[in-house]
């Protein structure tokens, strides 16, 4: 669109320039002047692809008719396109030849043409104004554009380097966390599993054997989950993981694994009741995983803070969402609470909100506690 407007402007200005010269207007018919101006406009419109036709039309029109607009625009494009000093010198030499030929034609024709191009002052002024100044402006424009492009490339390179440094720092931090978890958490859980196995072998009554077997099973499952988490931490990006590593990871739990989770809590002495409301239907895997984690974290808090308090787990299938509600009763008698980091519900709320859902937690009037999540499904 810019070059269309440029072509139209050059054509109109060229016609205005030659039509204002009485000698040219009287010696040439108007259709010829219009055709020359239109040719200059078309050449200016095509200057985006090649500026040499515009320079040729401008040189001929200047020598013949003192039509300066196409030569002025061509000089600007020459400044933006010519990069070698030899090319610039060649263009300047050609411009001198054009000015000289125009002066000779002016001497032959006389009148306004001679005054404009054949007198020394006007010749120098026209050469500087119509060729020299546009050429300098073109050189300045090209230099400014190159500086801006270099600055943009440098900014993009710095941004890429900054992203790479951030990725490297994240990878190092993830590796450090993985090492700490392996050296501390995995070691302690492994000791729990070993002691549970020893107790299972040495215990004399069936109840202790079952409890030890349950502890050992939970510990081994925790080690498996911890191994999966460490594998994720060790891989900076999912695409960096090899197919063998991906195959080694267990699929994350979903609502299909919920009964096994509830059975583990029941085996530890917590009466847990599950209620499903609404027509069960398949939902996205991320929604099921989040719902599972809501129940898991709520039951963990029951273990820590409420002992063997009765707990109700409700899964409600709504029209466009999945509701998960875990409500426990008031614990019976005093109980020593297990230590916790205090980040469980915070992380759970972040997980739910990432899916566009809401998580509400509140203490109940009867002394119990409620965890309620609404997840778009």
From TrEMBL:
Transmembrane helix found in the keyword field: yes
GO MF annotation, one: ATP binding
Entry-linked InterPro entries: HATPase_C_sf (IPR036890), HATPase_dom (IPR003594), Sensor_HK_TwoCompSys (IPR050482), Sig_transdc_His_kin_sub3_dim/P (IPR011712)
Annotated Histidine kinase/HSP90-like ATPase domain residues: 288-376
Source taxonomy: Bacteria, Bacillati, Actinomycetota, Actinomycetes, Streptosporangiales
Keyword Acyltransferase assigned: no
Region Disordered, annotated ranges: 237-256
Enzyme nomenclature, EC number: 2.7.13.3
Protein's name in the database: histidine kinase
Occurrences of domain Signal transduction histidine kinase subgroup 3 dimerisation and phosphoacceptor (ranges): 173-236
Species assigned in the record: Nonomuraea zeae
TM segment ranges: 30-47, 59-82, 88-108, 120-141
UniProt keyword list: ATP-binding, Coiled coil, Kinase, Membrane, Nucleotide-binding, Phosphoprotein, Transferase, Transmembrane, Transmembrane helix, Two-component regulatory system
The protein's enzyme class: transferase
Cellular component, GO, one term: membrane
Catalytic activity: ATP + protein L-histidine = ADP + protein N-phospho-L-histidine
Coiled-coil features, chain-numbered ranges: 141-168
Any one Pfam family match given in the protein's UniProt record, by short name: HATPase_c
